[in-house]
Target: Phytochrome-like protein cph2
Amino acid sequence: NADIAMYRAKEQGRNNYQFYALEMKNKFLRRAVLEKGMRKALERNEFRLHYQPQIDLQTGHIVGVEALIRWIHPEEGMISPIEFIPLAEETGLIAPIGEWILETACSQIMQWQGKGFPLMRVSVNLSARQIQQQNLVGYVGTVLERTGLDPKLLELEITESIAMYNEDYVINKLNSLKRLGLQIAIDDFGTGYSSLNYLNKFPIDTLKIDKSFINQITDASDHNEIITTIIAMARNLKLKVIAEGVETVEQLHYLQNQKCNEAQGYFFSKPLSVEDFELLFRQIASAAAGKVES
Ligand code: C2E
Ligand code: MG
Ligand code: MG
Ligand code: MG
Model:
């Protein structure tokens, strides 16, 4: 019946409209809630850093950790950085949050060293807005002094798109950061930009191969031209290569065969809270002790 069909279409149209309106309203509300909450989150101590181990593929040892921020919102629960970091950038709150991240990560490494854990490098993500911050170099230097962390053990991760944004400005900024003695990594490498010219111009130490490439490896004997090329290029440029998002033993073996330097991913460990990381370290230590005894 044509009338009924038309009625149904109208009804569905209205429902769709209502659905979109509701979705828009929810997005808007959530954004407002998060934005308001973020202003208080630092003083209310709602941010946490989780740490994901980075493994040297020759020795099998944990040589570094990447610090990854989490927000434990009192009503909304755990909120992903993918959702709130862009909001923090838009509102400018990334400045105080970024300083908190850096200080917390550096002092955590020192605390772990004090507890007898092996000394590790720590990688901290920098967002676009932080690179543009006037006082970035100043506060990174201050944090290094205040925490006493050896600058060689700090690595700052930036994405290719940041590196391209304002070339000369970013090159100067990175050179000033490098003078503090720290290291610079390009995060999500291979996803951003079509020209590789900047690899020569920028003072970079490390390339982190994006997990979308690692995902494609299903077999240790796979042939992945992009990964092979990135690793060969990094070797020629004397850069270290870290593979991100390693989830399977096949991917691990593939990367070992390719002489990739380091790897990070769920195969080894998810990003862990401080407590869980300490547990992992004790397990590794007692397993090593067990091996020596037997
Ligand atoms: P990223 O820096 O590329 O971090 C790697 C992301 O991959 C992390 O997500 C990590 O949990 C996830 N990951 C690690 N191993 C695996 C794996 O084997 N499989 C899969 N599927 N994923 C894996 P997370 O923690 O949700 O962070 C997402 C992004 O948010 C980060 O990407 C980074 O761009 C940003 N971010 C996180 N923490 C911070 C921070 O402290 N400051 C800034 N500015 N950005 C941050
Ligand atoms: Mg990163
Ligand atoms: Mg990445
Ligand atoms: Mg990413």
User: Anything to note?
Assistant: Residues 52, 67-69, 80-82, 85, 101, 125-127, 157, 187-188, 211, 244-247, 265-266, 271 surround C2E (ligand 1) (CB under 6 Å).
